[in-house]
Amino acid sequence: MIDAPLTSTTEDESADDAAMGEASFQRLHPLSIILKSIAAISQNLIAMGVLYFSVFDRNIIYTGLAAIALLAAIIGVTALVWSRFTYHIGPKEIRIKSGLISRNNRSIPFDRIQDVSLEQKLVSRILGLATVKLETGASAGEDGKLDALALADGEALRDRVRDYKSGAAATAADPDEGALPAAEPEERPPLFAMDNRRILIAGLFNFSFVLLAILAAIAQNLDFLLPDDFFNPWYWAKQLSEQDVVNGLSSSAQIAGAAAALISLIAVGLGSGIIRTFIREYGFRLDRVDRGQPGFRRQRGLFTLTDMVMPIHRVQAAILKTGPIRQRFGWYHLKFQSLAGDGSGESDHSAAPCAQMAEVEPILAETSIANVTADLEFCRVNPALWWRDAVLLTIVLSAVSIGIGLFVDPGFYALILLAVPIVAVKFLGWRHHQYTLTKTQLFVRTGWWRRKLTILPIRKIQTVDISQSPLDHPLDLASVTVGIAGGSPMAPLKINDIPMASAMALRAKLIRSD
Amino acid sequence: MTEAVSSPDPFEQIEQDEAQSYNQGLTPLHPPQKSLIRLNTGIFAIILTIAAAAIEFAVRNELPLAAGSIIGPIAAFALFLFVMLPNRIYRRWGYDMAEEQLRVLRGFMWRTDTIVPFNRIQHIDVAQGPFQRVFGLSTLIVHTAGTHNSVVALPGLSTPDAETMRDTIKGHIRQDMI
Hints:
In chain A, 41% of the residues lie in helices and 23% in strands. Chain A is of the alpha+beta class and 514 residues long. In chain A, the strands form 4 sheets. Chain A has a 7-stranded antiparallel sheet. In chain A, strands 14-13-12-18-17-16-15 form a 7-stranded antiparallel sheet. A 4-stranded antiparallel sheet of chain A has the order 1-2-3-4. Chain A is globular, with a radius of gyration of 29 Å. Chain B folds into 2 domains: 27-91; 94-177, Pleckstrin-homology domain (PH domain)/Phosphotyrosine-binding domain (PTB) (PH-domain like). In chain B, the strands form 2 sheets. Chain B has a 3-stranded antiparallel sheet. Chain B has a 3-stranded antiparallel sheet with strand order 4-5-6.
């Protein structure tokens, strides 16, 4: 329960707080003790196993006693932490008091909450609990986490934050009375939903080798079971070439074998992509909510259910992602950038993981962000973006290949051929890096393999940079970087290598004060 | 350019004019900043030379090197940096307090030109390090909600200037722009 310094931590008890009194503060659901104990126990299982084999010398009685003592300690500490964690939902803010020894008294104003999400892991679903996460975007991770409340209480809290400013919330000062049944207008069809067939399509494009990587990691950890030379390719080459089974086959059978290996690799990639997508996106549903601040509500998840509400005015930019194959079939991934990140480690909020343009349009229409129209003409950036890199890369590659080719083996001269695919990718990347500006929005396209279109309303721009690297000076080029709230700090929205004069003119239009 | 530095010294005035020809006519930093950059570069150059000396002493028994074959080039490079860099870094810096925005220009090799509209600024700091205090300098730091450029720092302002700028900007900060 040690929390990072967060939104607004007040150590001194204000007069306001004194008036509220301790009585109005409530605890989390008692079952959350069990929830957290289970998590703690599973972390300590390995430690118990180690103890069983080392200190206790495989004595089951000692180990059992130690396990019981540990169990008691875990439950005791968890219960103690639980008893010292209280929260109060006021008319304008939520206050959280926590901490065993150093007390932490935090206040999160509803105004500052970017989005509220309810998360139900598998155990929480069995117990009927939900974890409430309040994101303010102030720091990494959740700024307020109530782990866990009864599902109904969590929904009530979410509705309360959402209803804030609508007037209804101001009168219902008592949180218990505020816990009205979540009267969602369920009769309205969702803005976007995905059936299993659609999730399967999304999974097909979610090709990943994660499963393979996991298998490799397992193999690495269990390598004492494997032959010594398992990771030595020569060992395998020798084994295979010496086997009559392989040598005895015809060359066409050998090729078929290699093809089968490749196909099985692809199958593993596709399979893991589909499984991951199903676990994350199962039952995907996006609704528009109108009570209080208008917002989007998204529900998804197979094992871990998440239910998130994001106010529409918090949307900073719309992002449409696709790929060369996906685009051919007309599939796009719509995301909204906001100050708070998505729970699953993504920096943007996924609004439609796999949708046709016709399905994207109505979602975008809710946010007053206009999509690309047919008559909108995009500008290319300066071709120096690809040829300068191509020249530099070819020089480096030729130096390397000549160096190794001369001193090690003439076969290494072939390294220079690597330049061909890399230059081709650079060229394609240049062709797909385009931008344009309308009266109210900036459109930026990047990437050939991972195509990304960012649609940014100009009034959401925070800062604009014009930067030049030493290589840009002789060509009088510059890159424009736009600072927006949210998104990844590693990959900001950037228009690379346009003429200095265009960059200056573009910035003047972007910074037009409203 | 509300914060034009008025300097009675004609030599300094020439220097200011020269600086402006490199930073697109923006307001140059307070002149003592150049001394501070020189001090920092000097410290860096000394550390570099000491490191080179340490390496040379460490490897002189293993490798058949002539005395000073590591220290020499590195010390020359450090001297080159110390002589060439500070003035060039200083004169590329520039800032401009326009009606509604702050513009900061910086960088000698990697140049960056940032504009922050006042109404996008979340909060402001005026910071002063120990060396800066000696020279009577301050850094103006503005925080924005943007993930890129969440902090824009403008060092090398005279402390009264930095405080005036802070007060000007403070009047423009709006509630909840995101």
